[in-house]
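Need the bound structure for beta-D-fructofuranose, inputs here:
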Amino acid sequence: MQYQWMTLLIIPIFLCSCQGNKTQEEETEAKTLSDYREPHRNQYHFSPDSMWMNDPNGMVYHDGKYHLFYQYYPDSTVWGPMHWGHAVSSDLVHWTHKSIALYPDELGYIFSGSAVYDLGNTSGLGSEDNPPLVAIYTYHDAEKEKQGDIKYQTQGIAYSLDSGDTWKKYEGNPIIENRGIRDFRDPKVSWYEKGGYWLMALAVKDHIRFYQSPDLKTWTNLSEFGHEIGAHGGVWECPDLFPLTAEDGTTRWILFVSINPGGPQGGSATQYFVGDFDGITFTPDDEKIRWLDHGADNYAGVTWSNVSDRRIFIGWMSNWQYGQIVPTKRWRSAMTLPRELSLVPFGDEYIVRSEPVKELGKITKDSKTISEPQATFDVVENLSLPNATYRLTTTAPSDTSWHFNLKNDAGAALSIGYDQLSGRFYIDRTSAGNTGFHEAFGARHFAPRLSDKEQIEIEVFVDQASVEVFFDGGNTVMTDLFFAEDGLPIIELGEEGSVNPFSKCDVAGMERIW
Ligand code: FRU
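Answer from helper R.:
Posting the output first, comments after.
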């Protein structure tokens, strides 16, 4: 497990030696701005204009804007020396690209991390009148790593005094040294109101370490969690710790831990724990393994800081198994739709529900009902859309198995279904276009049903290269990529000779955001 980074790095280093500096095609393309209409370019999801992106980083709400930073390599479409790319949005739907916020420096590449608004200027990096935004991230020293020194990951901070436009690294970096652990990264910092201190969750190889700080600069160890609990098929990365309160008034603390590999569909995925946090220690309610998203393509996601009344999440919509070789040319990868998280009871436990943020209503056109159950419905034709970008909502019974297909004229088809016998949902993308770039890509992914209601609510967001399915109001979520030419505009609810179990199916076009 401790060689995780070696494996991950060997691939990019190898790839970079042949394409680390931009290929001629990349070079020419990067000079002009994208029109965001390339094949497989998602139309209402965030993606970089060009080049490589992975984890969302430093998400903070400030001064009416949601900031989204992200792991970015501006010199190639595969992973390389990490920077923090930057974009802002006032509605979580439309994004404006900003200049790169953080560049690698003599302490290393800029790996994943978080950002906070230091309202009380506890760090002293701003002033009472102009409190700073502070980013807390991991330094990855590739030189040290090459030399065989395992202490190559440390933590650093940077700050902004102009609402995130420009960033300055703190002179006293690193703020947390490495004492001999290879995987030591992805600090997620929040203000712990009850104790009046900053709290950091850090991924340390196979567990999470919690730290506290009065000023974001000096950190003391609080506790560790996870050595012998949860999924351990891979290294632990990108934690997040926050409270959620259910409608019945129950508050639980939620701990997100991304792991790679070892996800339920192979490769990377995000597990979560439900428990209690007393200011020092996280204590889980049980030993169950839970996944935030049961699809193959939602990784390293965390939540926005400084949003007082909601818990908003976004994830990297890809998987380390094949993220670097998916068939897009100018750029690689997109983020999931932003999702609002809530705590809901299920049996004698509480689970995390994910729902697409309500702001997406802004780009959702009036819906049409598919009234002819056996017919196929072409969204591009019927909703006058330029692309296959739509939301489908319907309900289906839980006492029978069912499925429906999303297709195109070239013969690609993706199935979404329910297997009544095992009580599982699935997405089958084996025939949904190009799957040949990686042996694990063409697969059927299963997810447990986490509801005992008679009727199953289904909400599906389809973009040019992704499908996000929210079952039972978001108790079970599945996010999967696909690479079908011109997307999947045709909805097929009932195949010939089969019974269509869907009560009412509404389809609404989703407007492009670029
Ligand atoms: C997760 C991750 C993080 C790391 C970053 C490097 O996808 O491996 O642990 O900080 O990506 O780009």
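Comments: Residues 54-55, 71, 82, 111-112, 138, 185-186, 237-238, 300 surround beta-D-fructofuranose (CB under 6 Å). The first strand starts at residue 51 and ends at 62.
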